[in-house]
Amino acid sequence: MRSVMRNLGLSALAVAVLAGCAATSTETAAPASSPQAFQVPLAQPPQVSQALTLNQIMANPDWMGVFAKEAYWSDDSQSVLFARQASASPLRSYYQQGINDSRAVELALDKLHAADQQFGVFDRTKSHKAYLYLGNIFVKQLSTGKISQLTRQRSAIDGVRYLNNGDIAYWQGDNVFQIHQDSGLVEQLAEIKMAKAPEGVKEPTSYLAKQQHRLIKYVALQQENAKAKAQYKDELQKSDPTLAASTWYLGDSEVVSELSLSPDGRYILLALTDKNYTGSSEHDIMPNYLGSDGYIDPVPVRARVAEDTPPGQRFVVLDLNQHKQVDITIEGLTGFDEDVLAKVKAENAKAKGETYQSTKAPRKIQLIQDWGWTQSAIQWHESEDKLALMLEATDNKDRWIASVDLAKGKFTTEHRLHDDAWVNYDYNQFGWLPGTDSLYYLSEESGYSQLYVKGLGAKPRALTQGKFVVSDIQLSPDANYIYYKANQTHPGMYNVHRVNLATGKNEQLTQWDGNLDYSLSPDGTQLLLNASRRTQPNELYVQPIGGELKQLTSYTSDAFKNYPWQAPEVVAVPSSYGAGKVYARVYLPQGYDKSRAEKYPAVIFNHGAGYLQNADYGFSGYFREFMFHNLLTQQGYVVMDMDYRGSKGYGRDWRTAIYRNMGHPEVEDLKDGVSWMGTNTNVDTQRVGTYGGSYGGFLTFMSLFTAPDLFQAGAALRPVADWAHYNAPYTSNILNTPDVDPIAYERSSPIEHAQGLTKPLLIMSGVMDDNVFFQDSVRMVQHLIELEKPTFETAIYPVEPHGFRQPSSWLDEYRRIYKLFEQELK
Fold it and tell me: Closest Cα partner for 271 from 376, 197, 198?
């Protein structure tokens, strides 16, 4: 809860979306009810009178429009608030637009504190809302709109909540306070110190000390006086109701990583972490060669998976009424001591000529680290002293929803999700159904993220079922429905649905033919959509439940909107490797003629992140690449974007197909993509190139190294060369850790396969990349030099992080990519 409540006002409005602005033009999507519409024959691309240029499409993206970001509902459900930020500006502007208004009003700086806030908490009557703005507490009376500021201080408050009696509690650092509504008194409920408790007055124990106290009256008197003062202080603490509660001393070996207060103010749940763990590298820095003072700045960097050892967390309950500390044991978690990596360890031991003997031992546990949510992994019952946590093992094989016995300090497993590969770092929303002892949650146990509900100690009941992905769940204000997003009609089309908790009836509420995010209005009557189509960037829409969709914003520029962009066809490529269908976007060349004698050259783009969906019907987060692909079609190329195995949106088995084997199933899918283009789009399969950034750069490496006849050229942007050098939270999911599973790392790291390079390769990296370190490319280049490979070139970008920022860098990068394809594929 602490990490959630640190969101400060309008500066942190929602979960971040994929980087990039977006674009629009009129397009007609194939109806979701016609599966054959997603197959060949492909539609002819639009004819253009003005060809695209690299200077235009790699320019500052503000020419496309400055779009609304992180939109959310006002408290009265009558308007929407959002931010806009020009690409080159370090500052944001904030806006509010009525649902019946044609344009938004910019909020003045002196009004931001009074604007409706996205992250706030309500009292039990839902008549008041408390929120943090720039670290201070404000309260809004919802019926009148009156706002009161309760704190005005420089030290930021971390979190706030209403207690069941209507008082407000807040926490700051490791201190918890209560503001009494009747008197305005600020009471410190808990002072938590991560230090050893003072030892108090010691009795003499050694011979010399005892002798000193026996023979020297002054020493004995001082001892008695000290004891009397300590006793008086203890009695005063117990008797004087005006004093704050006694300090909690929890030892000096840990730090508080999460803190959460119960709704009645009686209990505090703490998650403690070893104080020596930072997640940063102890050995390395990232040199900034262009430091502002003219010298090289040594920039700290995160630890690599090969050196990172997450310690897990220890959980403690503090009973503030009894001033009692209860340490929670993990034995109540089903499988808490299983050797879940036994087979992996045995395989690696055998490779070294050794044997492995499996033994049981407690595993390291922590609050789940979901990468997309804004909720907490700590969920209190709204009216009773009941607590549910979502926990994960640091080995990534188990996720638990556990209830907590607050008095005894015990977990009870309410749900265990085990995955022999890894538990997803997405689709982990959960919570209590109001007025019940039941929990709702998402789980991939069926193979797809679906919605479930279960009472404590009872069997779960599935609220959704099918081979589609459920996400973004939201409870209706009356708790009669759970709303959710799903790609039920097609993997690449997303819509909003809801399920009636009493009847189990599901209904689709929107009929969008692209991609979207949504939020339900506070009064439960309307949906706010942030929606896009293949050639239309995200805009905001409002739809009453059961009513007509209305567009709210129109920030796409006329220059972008009026250009005849080609909408890529979404096709299903049959897999030759038992994977079923591999969905992909296909762009056709200008004047496309499937029967012409001269076959077309082609390019395959590999999306980044690995676990990301790009072959959908929404506007791509890769907006520059979208425009680049349109440019390539104008130059006579066929272009394909594949959602290779490991991509998001297709269920658990698709996601985990790359477990311990990164870069191999994906290359198989790329092979099928090349073959499909040869059969269906008149492509010369001996004139195909590939490129991509980050994970896409990694796949470019693996394609050229392990399948040297597949592509004639490749460009690897900010590429991972050795997974042992990437971060632990991502890599250990898929490959375990190098000390446990070196086989997986050697099998999956491009640097281990570089001897296979025979075709032209372009390597491009930002020197200030704190995600995929520049060192990855340096090591790969030196390895290729030592292998005496003559077919590679490099380009470096001294000021760029992982996601490039300067238009000049984007232009230089894509000029080189385009030149490579023109030289090698034409």
Answer: 376
User: Which tokens is 153 given?
Assistant: 């201080």
The residue to which tokens 């195995």 are assigned: 645
Alpha-carbon gap, residue 738 to 760, rounded angstroms: 31
- The residue among 724, 607, 534 whose CA lies nearest residue 43 is 534
Phi-psi region of 184 (alpha: psi -120 to 50; beta: other; left: phi over 0): left
pTM above 0.90, yes or no: yes
Distance, CA of 470 to CA of 444 (rounded, Å): 9
Angstrom distance (rounded) from CA 334 to CA 361: 13
Q: Which residues contact 270 (CB under 8 A, 6 or more apart)?
A: 192, 250, 256, 258, 259, 315, 316, 317, 318
The dihedrals phi and psi of 478, each to the nearest 5 degrees, come to -90, 5
Q: Is 680 helix (H, G, I), strand (E, B) or coil?
A: helix
What is the C-alpha separation between 596 and 682, in angstroms, rounded?
8
What are 61's two structure tokens?
């993206």
Tokens at 192, concatenated: 């938590």
d(CA 515, CA 625): 18
- Cα end-to-end span (Å), the chain: 57
Query: Over the stretch 106-125, which tens digit does the pLDDT of each residue have?
Result: 999 999 999 999 999 999 99
- Give the residue from 407, 372, 419, 411 showing the smallest Cα distance to 390: 411
The runs of H, that is alpha helices, within 264-384 are 342-351
**Single-letter code of the amino acid located at 725:** H
Ramachandran region of residue 583, left (φ > 0), alpha (ψ -120 to 50) or beta?
Answer: beta
User: DSSP letters of 407-475?
Assistant: TTTEEEEEEEEE-SS---SS---EEEPTTSSEEEEEE-TTSS-EEEEEETTS--EES--SSS-EEEEEE
The helix/strand/coil state of 18 is: coil
Whole-number Å distance between alpha carbons of 248 and 324 = 9
Contacts 24+ apart (CB under 8 A), 494-499: 494/616, 494/618, 496/527, 496/529, 497/464, 499/451, 499/463, 499/464
Residue type, 706: T
Q: Which residues make Cβ contacts (< 8 Å) with residue 15, sequence separation at least 6?
A: 372, 373, 374
For residue range 508-534, list pLDDT tens digits in order: 999 999 999 999 999 999 999 999 999
Q: How far is CA 444 from CA 441, 463, 468, 579, in A?
A: 10, 13, 11, 19
Question: Which among 1, 69, 9, 504 has a CA at the least distance from the CA of 268?
Answer: 1
Number of H helices, E strands in the chain: 14, 44
CB 711 within 8 A of CB 759: yes
The answer to whether the CB of 132 falls within 8 A of the CB of 119 is yes
pLDDT tens readout for residues 701-746: 999 999 999 999 999 999 999 999 999 999 999 999 999 999 999 9
Give the C-alpha separation, 242 to 493, whole Å.
61
Find out whether 391 and 404 touch, Cβ atoms under 8 Å. Answer: no
